[in-house]
Amino acid sequence: MDANKKILVVEDEKNIALVLAYNIKKEGYDCDVAYDGETGLNMALAGGYDLILLDIMLPKMTGFEVCEHIRYKSQVPIIFVTAREEEKDRILGLETGADDYVTKPFSFKELMARIRANIRRSSGEVAKSAAAAFAGTSITVGELVIDREHYSVTKNGEPIELSKKDYDFILFLAENVGVAYSREDLLERIWGYDDYYGDIRTVDVTVSRLRKKIENDPARPEYLLTKRGVGYFLCKR
Ligand code: CA
Could you tell me the pTM of the whole model? Predict the structure, then answer.
């Protein structure tokens, strides 16, 4: 019954694309390849993929643009795979709605660990959301309402635009309101890595982006607070 999980690789360097596809198939996934941004976007929107590996520098459309367009329609996990490793690229990638980021050169062991974690995370969420829909529950924290049935967050009734990771982040802290978690802990729980190769600044970037969206004054947060020496928590108001 279980169809193979299907991965789309969007990468214009043929050699890299073929090596990626070869290794992904070896792990038991189905894999398609697109060699430019536009084709990649069309294939991604046609659907049926469980995860997308996306290069940044691509002909026709950049990976950032592709990611942004995919996010209008779909919450499929997206991992940027790129040679660019400047901090601003990492931040821009996460801001356009990517779930993760791998810089070349990377090991296939690392890449496959991330692919598995992202797919596991996203299928786990489908199961969880079905349970939440059945219970029909939402969580209220001050002016925020986190609706687990519709994956949405509103503030004073106004919807807040959130990426999937942003939503996961808020939901997790709301489910554990008042409890502070370290950045390492949050990486493991929200991004799903048992053994994270990346960087805890991902958590800080997410927090600062979320503060811009949910706080009345992001410079003086009232909801998403820092607990000095520990990490972050959502304040019960
Ligand atoms: Ca490229």
Answer: 0.58
